[in-house]
Write a structure and sequence with these properties.
The chain has about 270 residues and is an alpha/beta fold. It has a single domain, classed as Rossmann fold (3-Layer(aba) Sandwich), CATH 3.40.50.300. Helix content is about 40%, strand content about 10%. It has 13 helices and 5 strands. Strands 2-3-1-4-5 form a 5-stranded parallel beta sheet, with helices on both faces. α1 runs antiparallel to α11 and α10 runs antiparallel to α11. The radius of gyration is 18 Å and the shape is globular. The N and C termini lie far apart (about 45 Å).
């Protein structure tokens, strides 16, 4: 049985790069990593904003002990989209990622003092462009010009966070939580990881109180020096971070830039390269 001493929550809206960052975490030999447990059939509905510390802690234990195919993303390991990291039962850190259920993060932080959050934020135009190009996430027949703000073609309930306004909501949430819990919440800009992956990922592990294991550095180098076209692959050429410049409708880009100019979210308009 694993003896879990630390909990790491990786949050980010869909298409923010959280699959890649999740596998960076998973590459550490002390970490067992789980994929979207609050969305998984096995644990869906187990906790909500009103859950107790005991409810959350029981969920964490069950997550760490589970070998559920969805939580461990066995299909992506078999396809080669994810690396085939294996666990030995001696992991002491549970890390998990969620793109949905963002409203649960604040209550979790308040009731589970040992938990830390990595709030991943990617350029909004990159997020929206990646979303609209993915046929598994942008419903067939939907009009991007009508959907980019509210994402109602995909948002089926309060647990979903698609569209520009949801990106803004989540970005403000992470910044607010970082102000409230500066030692426990790291707002990680995706473009910093792309532009300087080794140094930025090392800083991320240092923030979490973990060493920068050789296995982590090896995966970071491998994942940024090869490329797969799959939407869910974690092996990508760094220039995918700025493909949106040639692909996004310019009038939408201009509106987003104008909307964020002079606000605290303007910092996420940073473009690498």
């Amino acid at each position: 049985m694993k003896s879990i001493e630390k909990i790491l929550y990786l949050g980010g809206v869909a298409r923010s790069g959280s699959s890649w960052v999740g596998q960076i975490l998973a590459s550490h030999p002390k970490i067992c990593f789980r994929f979207q447990p609050l969305f998984a059939y096995k644990f869906k509905g187990r906790v909500n904003e009103d859950s107790s510390k005991e409810d959350f802690e029981k969920l964490f234990i069950d997550m760490a002990m589970s070998s559920d195919d969805f939580l461990c993303q066995e299909d992506k390991k078999l396809s080669g989209e994810y690396p085939g990291f294996t666990e030995n039962g001696k992991e002491t850190v549970l890390a998990f990622k969620e793109n949905r259920y963002q409203s649960v993060i604040g209550p979790m932080l308040r009731r589970v003092p040992g938990m830390q959050l990595i709030g991943l934020i990617r350029h909004p135009c990159a997020v929206l462009n990646s979303w609209r190009k993915n046929p598994k996430e942008f419903p067939l027949g939907s009009d991007f010009r009508k959907e980019w703000r509210h994402g109602m073609c995909k948002n089926s309930g309060p647990e979903d966070y698609f569209g520009y306004l949801k990106w803004k909501e989540v970005s403000h949430l992470y910044l607010d939580l970082a102000e409230q819990h500066p030692e426990r919440v790291l707002v990680q800009r995706y473009e910093d990881l792309v532009n300087n992956p080794l140094a930025s990922s090392e800083h991320m592990f240092q923030f979490c109180g973990l060493d920068y294991a050789p296995e982590v550095a090896a995966f970071v180098q491998e994942s940024t020096s090869s490329h797969q076209e799959s939407y869910y692959s974690v092996y990508k050429n760094p220039y995918v971070a700025v493909k949106w410049r040639q692909e996004m409708p310019q009038d939408i880009v201009d509106e987003i830039y104008e909307d964020l100019r002079g606000t605290r979210l303007e910092q996420f308009l940073y473009e690498p390269f």
